[in-house]
Amino acid sequence: MTIEEQLTTPVEIGNLIGRVEQFRNEGYRLVQISCTALGDSYEINYSFDKDYGFRNIRITIKEGTEVPSISGMYWGAFIYENEMHDLFGIRVRGMNIDFKGTLFRTTVRYPFGNPAPKGEEQ
Amino acid sequence: MAKTALITVLRKPATIRYPFEPAKKTDISRGHVVIDESRCISCTLCQKRCPAQAIVVLKDEKTWQIDRLRCVVCRACVDVCPVTCLFMDTQYTAPMTTRGVEIVAITYVKPPRPENPSPTGEAQT
Amino acid sequence: MTRQIIIPFGPQHPVLPEPIHLDLVLEDEKVVDVIPSIGYIHRGFEKLVEKREFPDYVYIAERTCGICSFIHGMTYCQGIEQVMNIEIPERALFLRTIWSEYSRLHSHLLWLGLFADSFGFENLFMNAWRIRERILDVMEQTTGGRVIQGACKIGGVRLDIDNEKLGRMSRDLDSIREEIDVLTTIFLRDSSITHRLKDIGVLSKTDAYSLGAVGPVGRASGLAIDLRETGYAAYGKLDLEIVTEREGDSYARCVVRARELFTSIDLIKQAINTIPEGPVEVKVTGAPQGEYFSRSEQPRGELVHYVKGNGTKFLVRSRIRTPTLSNIPPLVKMLQGCELADVPVIVLSIDPCIGCAER
Question: Can you tell me the ipTM of this complex?
Fold first, then answer.
């Protein structure tokens, strides 16, 4: 039973703002921004939805790259970008509300990032 | 609202004096895990499946231990046990004053293998 | 030029069910700006996926939230089943739908009680929770747990409900419906309640769409977004009605949730009347390879579970995006311009489930 079709398109980081602006002009709403840590690179997924049609764009970056913020077009994106910064250590340039690392106050900085910091083994 | 107020005044109280009276439970409520030690074959499947890592099975010493305060009563061990020696009791875990594990000694004895009748003797009859 | 002072709201506050911190910037009792801050209940669920095998992770995904726990488990199972191309039997789909709608009933009744408590009407709070006890009794009789159900697994559901019990549940729903009718009449007609709720915390339709409001918060502002229309589980076979309002204030959010109680009762009755016979689970072998975004409709809005596997027993990534996380930017917008005494009512009207939002 396929519930819905899901299209994922990989995008270069330079074209990110252009593609997001295209989605905004067509009337899509932002669903989520999520990050996956794979070895030494990170994969960031931006998901959009309109009338239950789900579209997804993905950028792959190396450690230390700066990502431009999309909060100029989607005001509510600040919460996902701050969470990404606090948990993974990815720097985002130009957020409209920048918490500077105080949104998620954890004992270990960037707990999900690479390499995973050694905590207490349970 | 007046009808509800009148009915609740005339009914007896809804509170139960637990632990002096047993708690309100159904047949399939999940309370705490109980083991029948004469059937456990120490296969350690329950230890692998426990999401809270509360069960530890030591094969050489023949013990099965559970940390009651880590167990989340999810029934994963009961469902996966191949010889059905684990059961789910319906009453809550008893309160305790110190942290510790509960150790149960396994009393399963493997039955001796039955003698094989020699194949030439039976087939020729 | 009036002076601005900053007042901290939360994380400990008598009206909040879960800890969230807001720094309110005030000018003479009028809120000018809000700075939210979360992270008090972060448990690191997404990191735990690397240490537990994918069938056991259902138990952990369920425990993300206590109020909407069944739907978390169901959405995770749906994601893994899509990745591994498993077809689950029809009866399991209908059973999942029935338990989801019972979850929605108990969540909305819980919210109505807490909302009444936030403007001081404790008697109504206790009455709403008294009706909720009957729903939790049904959950315990059918799944074994009042709050954490533990009924979903990859490949179907773990237990079955026999037809005689289903008939009894359907008849009990009639008496529950009468009690809910009395309760919602008070909520929607009482003059002291409407005085506190009308025109408080207004969110316009364009704002709601551009800020990403989901669930009843978006539907009260006129957006007709309800993920049950995509037809996951057995919703494709049932008659669905989406409840929307136009004003976008706290009263509209209360009306949307009160009316959703009645649509849930109708959906459960339809599902019980049309449930087919058959098995309730299939055997699962192998490991997931691939990724999928699994979406479903929680009582608070749109829930997204992203799973990614690489062919081993441990998943690479599991990401949970809960509706409360997406409703925090609209909350910041709603609070600008309101009075200080209305802040608890507005914060509770988005139905904050911060335990979900931070995992």
Answer: 0.82
